[in-house]
Amino acid sequence: MAVAAETASDATAFETEALLFAQREGEVLEHFGGSLPPFVLVGFKADGTGGVSTLELPPARYNLEEIQLFRVLRGVVARAVRHQDPRLLGRAATLSARISQRYFPKPSFDYVTGLAERHRALGIQVAHSGSLYGLMLDPKSTGLPSVIRTISNELSDAGFQNIGVFSVNGAGGIHVLGS
Amino acid sequence: MSLEVDYFRALEAPRLAQLGPNIVAAVFPLMKLMPARFILDQAQKSGQLKAGSHIIETTSGTFGMAMALLAAARSYRLTLVTAETLIDEPYKRRLELLGANVMVLEDEKGDGNQPGRLAYLKQAVEDQPGTFWTRQYDSPGNWLSYARLAELLARSAGQIDWLVGCIGTGGSLCGTGAFLRELYPHLKVAAADTHRSVLFGQPVGKRMLRGLGNSVIPANVRHHLIDEVHWVGAYAAYHSAHALLRNHGIFQGPTSGASALVGAWIARTHPDATVAVIMPDEGFRHADTVYNREWLDRLPGWPGEAIHEPETLSMIEPREEWEWTRYEWGRARLDDVKPPPEAAVESSNPTEHTKH
Question: What pLDDT digit, counting tens, does each position of A105-149 carry?
Fold first, then answer.
């Protein structure tokens, strides 16, 4: 369950149909029955290091409370998909990222969550077995282009790298908006 | 052959019922199956439970029934410690038919004799090494199991602003509330208790409404999660249980009546909020009492008038069985609101030490 749940916020993001995938077992645990709700993702790298090999990384030993919270998040993601509710998806992603941070701490986590709150992001998304961050934004929010510019500039000033902007939605998967 | 069927998982799941425009109820046939199965699964995984192990627990009923069903299906031996005021003969027979050994202790004070039951149980665990005590009162497995209820509510109801449920061990309300509050930090939690239960600072005494409240304070009751407490008298709960059957076709026990009463009032007074109510078990066990007009008519003062609004207390005190009171707990710790009942009794009446 823990292995399964850990992929809830990331592995599903780039599928046309959202699903919960146990990456170590290669097993689909739940088809959410639709695509993820649309959101705009500002992605960036936590540091300048290269990629992480998932299989070389020891699995996180989540405690029972975290495992149980993951199961609740699975329900939240299911609802976010069914009702195409990006805010709910963002909330699940942030909670999932907070748990991940206890096991695979990423640098500047507090800075990133602070940034997300300041700009009223839907949530933050992390690669539980990698070094990528993502700020999830509501595509319908007013003044989005200027918010994206401000966030990108702040991130760049703070020393983050590989900053890219993507539009994630069900119909066409993922579009690069800029970098 | 691989059939994807798990009967107990299905049996422990509630049906959802919409009781009004902004109130949904999780209606359980036997809610305690959820913590019982979770606690047994964890104990099996950790090796604490082995084939044929002996399980023991103190329970006034539904957790015992859940444990008896699971122990029978999984071939464990089971001892249930209860009190004479808490268990009826048909229920006892059903438990025994499932293979449980039911120990019925005397209960002179009529408060359930929980201290006596715990003393008996601890002695039994000492005398029979390897006995597994499920500890529904303070095992974290109790509250953790309710992630499944939080998940179900999150899936089907979405944002929830108020969670209302009975409180006895604290498992269902504090467990579901803790998980839901992670998702919805503004979530308010209201506890349905009853007069003369010690959980929220009332003096211990005879409780007519059984299945919620307590005469001791379990660790799973986490006071700091609770926003407000309602003490629902037995008669008020009975009226509400009858109304559930008449208005919604929901045949549940009187504790479900208590939580429905509180939930409906909160839904009325907060029309913009979504309220979720937990209803713990079905009504069949109460067919000869709560759902029997002859039995009801023999109660002093019955039927009185069905109440639809609680009286807000400024000082916590017990009331009559037809009354319904409320206190704004405000996520306090028990010590912040009132000295522990033991200390209060000792200071007001130094000669009374029998309850220890």
Answer: 888 899 999 999 999 999 999 986 667 899 999 999 889 999 999
Most B CBs within 10 A among A27, A30, A68, A81, hence the mutation to make, goes to: A68
pLDDT of residue A1: 35
Query: Which among B42, B156, B179 is the nearest to A69, CB-wise?
Result: B179
Count the Cβ atoms, other than its own, within 10 Å of residue B318: 17
Contact criterion met (CB < 8 Å) for A95 and B140 = no
Chains A and B: how many Cβ contacts under 8 Å? 46
| Rounded Cα distance, B207 and B225, in Å | 24
Disruptive mutation site among B16, B151, B176 for chain A (greatest number of A CBs within 10 Å):
B151
Pairing of strands B275-279, B228-232: unpaired
For residue A38, give Cα distances in angstroms to A8, A97, A121, A125, B183.
16, 19, 13, 14, 20
Could you report the per-residue pLDDT of B43-85, keeping only the tens digit for each? Answer: 999 999 999 999 999 887 899 999 999 999 999 999 999 988 8
Q: Say which residue the tokens 């209201």 belong to.
A: B190
Identify the burial level of B3 via C-beta atoms within 10 angstroms of its C-beta, where 0-12 means exposed, 13-18 middle and 19 or more buried: exposed
